[in-house]
């Protein structure tokens, strides 16, 4: 909760600056570049080990690959754009839909991707059902930029090689 409040409180300060730019990012995904596995890495690794994974079917995002996010951020910083802009993927998807499509493109067993609902779990804090972003302002400002689909983003990903047994899922 504090995380969201801090972000909300910082926006007026940033947009009040002459060069102020606030970029609201969507759920990002992709393989870790820092050695620490991401949620994306852990889910796909678990599937590669034959472990079923349950993901929300009723919580929606506009998923954005890390590389596409980095590209758009550099373009925005190099531009004269100021104010608030949403940066998300081109598709509104649930984590279940995302993972099912990732499993398909990576040749993992799709039957291991299971759906559940937010109401099925007792979460410590309420979560909004839809945090997908309207990126029309970004599209108008950077018409040459486009976000790849999950299939396009993962097409060049190397095969998943499970890490040594131990922590993780």
Task: Summarize the model shown.
The chain is an alpha/beta fold.
Give a structural overview.
- By secondary structure, the chain is an alpha/beta fold.
- The longest helix has 14 residues.
- The protein has a two-stranded parallel sheet. Strands 2-5 form a two-stranded parallel sheet.
- The chain is built from six helices and eight strands; from the N terminus they run αββαβββαββαβαα.
- Helix content is 35%, strand content 15%.
- It has a single domain, classed as NAD(P)-binding Rossmann-like Domain (Rossmann fold), CATH 3.40.50.720.
Layout: helices, strands, pairs:
Blueprint: H1 2-15, E1 21-25, E2 28-29, H2 39-48, E3 53-56, E4 60-61, E5 64-65, H3 66-77, E6 83-87, E7 93-94, H4 95-106, E8 113-116, H5 136-141, H6 150-154
Parallel strand pairs: 1-6, 2-5, 3-8
Antiparallel strand pairs: 4-7
């Amino acid at each position: 909760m504090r995380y969201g409040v801090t972000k909300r409180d910082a926006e007026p300060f940033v947009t009040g600056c002459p060069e102020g730019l606030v970029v609201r990012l969507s759920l990002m995904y992709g393989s870790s570049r820092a050695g620490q596995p991401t949620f994306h890495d852990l889910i796909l690794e678990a599937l590669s080990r034959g472990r079923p994974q349950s993901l929300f079917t009723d919580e929606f995002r506009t998923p954005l690959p890390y590389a596409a996010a980095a590209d758009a951020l550099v373009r925005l910083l190099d531009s004269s754009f100021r104010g608030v802009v949403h940066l998300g993927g081109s598709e509104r998807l649930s984590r279940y839909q995302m993972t099912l499509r990732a499993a398909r493109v990576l040749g993992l067993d799709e039957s291991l991707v299971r759906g559940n609902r937010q109401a099925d779990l007792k979460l410590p804090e309420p979560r909004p059902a839809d945090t997908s972003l309207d990126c029309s302002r970004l599209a108008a400002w950077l018409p040459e930029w486009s976000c790849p689909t999950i299939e396009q983003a993962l097409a060049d990903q190397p095969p998943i090689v499970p890490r040594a047994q131990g922590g993780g899922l």
